[in-house]
Amino acid sequence: MNIPVERRGAIIDSGATSHFCPDRSKFLNFVFIEPQDVHTADGSAVSTIGKGDVKIDLPNGKEHTSVTLWNALYAPKMAFTLISTRRITAGGLAVHFEDQICKIMSHGPKCIVIATILQVEGLYSVAA
């Protein structure tokens, strides 16, 4: 991929078991880990070599909401940051897919929408 890693966006991924980020500079804190291979949806594997928390801005109309992806894995050869819906919901937020839109909402009686991500070419993608 010819796009510099720091300019790559993120994908909302309902199949990912963890958050993954290829850009070391986006980690708020970072520790190296024993390398682990992770198998991707296309059957290939990438190696994770670190972990930490990653701050990312999610679009919500003309505004942005800053969220922290806790315990994201550093996978330098991954094409994009992957945001795991499983981990988002485990962190206390809700994810709703409808009409080619992914909404991330706070839990609770009011369920405030904090992010609205459009589907682009079959993927819910966040521009860098």
- Overall geometry comes to globular
What percentage of residues falls in helices of 4 or more residues? Answer: under 10%
Low-pLDDT stretches: none
Rg value:
14 Å
CA-to-CA gap between the ends? Answer: 15 Å
Overview of the structural elements:
This protein has one helix and ten strands, in the order E-E-E-E-E-E-H-E-E-E-E. It is mainly beta and 128 residues long. It has one domain (11-126): Cathepsin D, subunit A, domain 1 (Beta Barrel), CATH 2.40.70. The strands form two sheets. The protein has a six-stranded mixed β-sheet with strand order 6-1-10-9-8-7. A four-stranded mixed β-sheet has the order 2-5-4-3, with no helix packed on it. Strand 8 (101-106) and strand 9 form a beta hairpin. It is globular. It starts with 9 loop residues before the first strand and ends with a strand.
Q: Which properties best describe this structure?
A:
55% strand, globular, six-stranded mixed sheet, single chain, 128 residues, Cathepsin D, subunit A, domain 1, 10 strands, four-stranded mixed sheet, mainly beta
